[in-house]
Amino acid sequence: MSLCKVCGANNPDEAAACRVCKTALEKGDSGQEIRRRTQVEPMPRVPTFEEAGGFGAGQAGGQVRGGAAEPVRRVTVFDPNAGAHSGTQPADRPAVAARKIVGVLVTYSWSEQGQVFPVVEGRNFIGRNPEKCEIAITQDETLSAINSHIIFRKNFTIGDDVSMGGTDVDGEPVETAFVPLRNYAKIRTGSTHWTFIAIEPGKTEIEGTKE
User: Fold this and answer.
1) CATH number of 170's domain
2) pLDDT tens-digit profile of 62-105?
3) How does pLDDT run across 26-43, given as a tens digit for each residue?
4) Is there a smaller number of Cβ atoms within 10 Å at the N or the C end of the chain?
5) Residue 62: left (phi > 0), alpha (psi -120 to 50), or beta?
């Protein structure tokens, strides 16, 4: 019997070709076991990013060169603008509208040059904690974290927020939440002394520009 070296089928000695795979048989191989050889083919070289043609090349599975498609290395690139207009990012927090300045507080208690703080529409907390107060004096250890407040809606009022150091206006202690506050009033909160100056918020035209 002749053993086919390709498919391993047994064939008659007189056969010139394998009856199974039709491969030509070599004489003198009868009864011998054929060792199958595994041929390792080298993997095709992956082209570099520049060889692949940069971004956008090989979108159909590879860049065609000489009629053959070559694999293209895919590169992931961070795009800081991705999703900015696609609705995939969380919505930005709504912007806090700036409140109009309607007055100022001036103090010389902690600086020879003086310190000026704007008073804006709505409620303005005065205290030692800058994270909770619009007007914060961190040097004053007798000032409570939230000591007092000034409110402007139609008129100015001042109140004490149950502070340890208390609040005075023109030498009189503030004992209620809504005490009328006049222009150029003298205020004491803790050990800080202030002069309050009101601004007329309704007059926004710059002199000489109104027709």
Assistant:
1) 2.60.200.20
2) 444 555 555 555 544 444 444 333 333 333 333 335 899 999 99
3) 765 444 444 555 555 566
4) C
5) left
Beta-sheet pairing, 122-127 with 135-136: parallel
For residue 193, which phi and psi values (nearest 5 degrees)? Answer: -110, 135
Task: Tell me whether residue 81 is in a domain.
Answer: no
Least confident window among 26-40, 145-159, 191-205: 26-40
Residue 74 in any domain: the answer is no
**DSSP codes joined into one string, 73-88:** -------TTTTTTTS-
Q: Is residue 146 part of a domain?
A: yes
